[in-house]
Write a structure and sequence with these properties.
With 315 residues, the chain is mostly helical. It is 57% helix and 5% strand. It is built from 17 helices and eight strands. This is Calumenin-A isoform X1. Belongs to the CREC family. Interacts with GGCX.
């Protein structure tokens, strides 16, 4: 049984990092932008289409009549209306936009799911994941490739247990998504910080000092002149990362660094869509109000997402 591509990707990342001494390693997790387009409704609603449906889906619009576009949008509205009260709130709209923007994550999980769900029971146990990922190591506990698979396996198990919220050592689709993409889940952010600190904290004191901070980003070689960005990062550490000025970053400071509280673009877009469509100004949208502004949400075209609804839903 082979070591899974996940481990091989890790190995390649290590080699890549050590072979590019002047290239900055990025640790900060940012939300992906809702669209690469400028948000200017005076020039069109492309940004809103990207935000509402996801950029990949918005790019694959097919020509539809306004009537067909409205009909399909109506089905989507029912999906957004989580409590089925006949209205779409800002909260529901924000959740939908967030989900649309994270579709690539769910697609990634779906691609990996069948590899790990060995018994095809619709769940993935820690034992299944361990055997598929570390099968070669389990057969040969002393590989000569230089990697500490025992440590990596223990680290994966700790993360798996954190994602497994009911503690049954079996992950459903959402728990497995949290395991593979912990930065996307609030209850997993602590493990992201812990793993990051373990990677960077070379002296094992539980903190990240300036040398460790720079050393993680920059592989110094004596014959090479230090790039300008390294000096900038030293200033960033002293002025912004080390908030209490004790010369090192603790867990809270590390979380502020790698998981910053970014501007919530999905919330802003949800507010914008409600503001533009809420004709009676009651703070929520009826299906009729959304369909009346269909061009703001989807225009007069359908997306791959709309086509997926055709396949999975009876219009």
């Amino acid at each position: 049984m082979e070591i899974r591509p996940l481990l091989m990707c890790f190995a390649l990342c290590v080699v890549y990092a050590t072979s590019k001494p002047t290239e900055k390693k990025e640790r900060i997790h940012h939300d992906a932008p809702l669209s690469s387009r400028e948000h200017d409704d005076a020039q069109g609603f492309d940004y809103d289409h990207d935000a509402f449906l996801g950029q990949k889906e918005a790019k694959s619009f097919d020509d539809l009549s306004p009537e067909e576009s409205k009909r399909r949008l109506g089905v989507i509205v029912e999906k957004i209306d989580g409590d089925s009260d006949g209205f779409v709130t800002e909260v529901e709209l924000r959740a939908w936009i967030k989900k649309a923007q994270k579709k690539y994550i769910y697609e990634n999980v779906d691609r990996q799911w069948k590899d790990f769900d060995v018994n095809n029971d619709g769940m993935i146990s820690w034992e299944e994941y361990r055997n598929v990922t570390y099968g070669t190591y389990l057969d040969d506990p002393e590989p000569d490739d230089g990697y500490n698979y025992q440590h990596m396996m223990a680290r994966d198990e700790r993360r798996f247990k954190m994602a497994d919220q009911n503690g049954d050592q079996i992950a459903n689709k959402e728990e497995f998504t949290a395991f593979l993409h912990p930065e996307e889940y609030d209850h997993m952010k602590g493990i992201v910080v812990l793993e990051t600190m373990e990677d960077i904290d070379k002296n094992g004191d539980g903190f990240i000092d300036l040398n460790e901070y720079i050393g993680d980003m920059y592989n110094h070689e004596d014959e090479m002149e230090e790039p300008d960005w390294v000096a900038t990062e030293r200033e960033q550490f002293s002025e912004f990362r080390d908030k209490n000025k004790d010369g090192k970053m603790d867990r809270e400071e590390t979380m502020d660094w790698i998981l910053p509280s970014d501007y919530d673009h999905a919330e802003a877009e949800a507010k914008h869509l409600v503001y533009e469509s809420d004709s009676n100004k009651d703070g929520k949208l009826s299906k009729e109000e959304i369909l009346n502004k269909y061009d703001l949400f989807v225009g007069s075209q359908a997306t791959d997402f709309g086509e997926a609804l055709v396949r999975h839903e009876e219009f």
